[in-house]
């Protein structure tokens, strides 16, 4: 356990070092026109699937950065709309979005909300049975789920 915590500390120090060297670079600076081939799909998904009329501050920039394949480190207040930052790109991108959270109730709430919106999502926690784990891994293998909460 101690080695694991030390590894996390080293990784955080490395992230801090890396990000403190670089100026904040919004996606618009990486793409000066601020226009992307996926703009319409992003807005259609935001409004049509998530039923949200517009983005909150900084959400669109972070989503565009993610869709460009660039890692993001985002700090936002509770209720600031962080979940959308990985949920929306997960629907437009290939592969899976894996979210790790220590809060089981948050995981269950998000999975329930995503399923109510018609978005495939699963929760995999330590209490999952072997058959439940097998079912989820089979879904992933067959391409059935886009969001996995751990």
Automatic annotation (TrEMBL):
Give all residue intervals belonging to the Helicase ATP-binding domain: 63-150
Task: Say if the entry is tagged with keyword Transmembrane.
Answer: no
InterPro entries annotated for this entry?
Answer: DEAD/DEAH_box_helicase_dom (IPR011545), Helicase_ATP-bd (IPR014001), P-loop_NTPase (IPR027417)
Choose one Gene Ontology CC annotation of this protein and give it. Answer: cytoplasm
GO terms, biological process = double-strand break repair via homologous recombination
What does the record give as the reaction this protein catalyses? Couples ATP hydrolysis with the unwinding of duplex DNA by translocating in the 3'-5' direction
Which family does the UniProt entry place this protein in?
Belongs to the helicase family. RecQ subfamily.
Q: Which PANTHER family match?
A: ATP-DEPENDENT DNA HELICASE Q1, DNA HELICASE RECQ FAMILY MEMBER
State the name under which the record lists this protein. DNA 3'-5' helicase
Which organism does this record belong to? Amorphochlora amoebiformis
